[in-house]
Design brief:
Elements lengths: L2 E6 L5 H15 L2 E9 H5 L12 H21 L6 E8 L1 H9 L4 E4 L13 H10 L4 E3 L12 E5 L4 H9 L1 H6 L2 E8 L12 H10 L4 E7 L5 H12 L1 E7 L5 H7 L2 H8 L3 E5 L1
Parallel strand pairs: 1-2, 1-4, 2-3, 4-5, 6-7, 6-9, 7-8, 9-10
Antiparallel strand pairs: 5-10
Helix pairs in contact: 4-5
Length: 275
């Protein structure tokens, strides 16, 4: 893991996101590729067509806020012992991130939207980014403390292609962890078919990376896989969860809920997720 793409935009959690990206980059000796995105729809809000923002004051206020954000982030970065570069664009957030991520090892983004578009990032954008990019996403939990890349990590293992792909893509993060727990959640904690990739394969893969994985098979909590994962994470002090995304139909998860949707929405740990 040598290039980390950091998504910067004017939202209420951008400062802690910068700190978390710096913590990962420092621990991995990685370069921080900062992409400052002003959503094109935010700019379009202030177009004068139709009588909106006729004097241009709204657009000017937005530009001033974006300038202030850039200055603040640059000021933070220049005092850190991490290599970085800074790119600022106006455009669609999804396409801007997916395009830049093609030569990145991790995308550090968040669940909060640009201030011009409410307080919560639409879940659809994160789902679309997960599908459009082959680079794993990192979303910090809701804790205010900085993410510790050298803490305990968990892998949500179900033997699927998506889970295996997530482990491979998050190998750089897993190498930094002090402990790695491979966790299989079943309905009652019982043994079930291994899926495409048996447990032995992921443990062998991790061992070749110098990672000792400790296996746990646990039961759902109140019928929920995510609650079982969160409970295990709390008990073992885990700060990172590595998971595969959308191993079942995305349409089904969108309408009826699902593990990926819940993880994207409210995972309390740092989440590294790949499709």
């Amino acid at each position: 893991m040598k290039t980390i793409l950091l998504h910067v935009q004017d939202d209420e959690r951008v400062d802690i996101r910068v700190e978390n990206a710096l913590a990962i980059a420092r621990a991995a000796s990685a370069h921080l590729d900062v992409l400052h995105v002003t959503p094109e729809e935010a700019m379009a809000t202030f177009e004068s067509f139709g009588g909106i923002d006729v004097d241009g004051s709204g657009r000017k206020a937005l530009e001033n806020a974006e300038d202030a954000l850039e200055a603040r982030v640059r000021d933070e970065l220049k005092n850190e012992d991490v290599s970085w570069d800074y790119h600022r664009v106006v455009g669609p957030t999804l396409n801007s991130l997916a395009s830049r991520a093609a030569l990145s090892d991790l995308i550090v983004t968040g669940r909060t939207a640009h201030r011009q578009h409410g307080r919560a990032t639409p879940l659809q954008m994160l789902g679309d980014l997960l599908h459009e990019s082959r680079t794993p996403l990192f979303l910090r939990g809701e804790e205010k403390e900085r993410f510790d890349p050298c803490g305990t990590a968990m892998i949500a293992w179900d033997g699927s292609y998506e889970a295996a792909n997530a482990v491979r893509n998050a190998a750089g993060l897993l190498r930094l962890a002090s402990e790695v727990h491979v966790v299989r959640v079943t309905e009652k904690g019982e043994e079930v078919p291994p899926g495409l990739y048996p447990l032995t394969r992921v443990l062998e893969y991790l061992s070749r990376l110098g990672i000792h994985g400790e296996y746990h098979r646990i039961a759902e909590v109140d019928g929920l896989v995510t609650e079982a994962l969160y409970d295990h994470g709390r008990k073992h002090g885990a700060g990172l969860l590595v998971a595969g995304g959308y191993s079942h139909s995305r349409i089904g998860q969108y309408f009826f809920g699902g593990v990926t949707r819940t993880l994207l929405q409210d995972c309390p740990m740092g989440l590294a997720i790949a499709h």
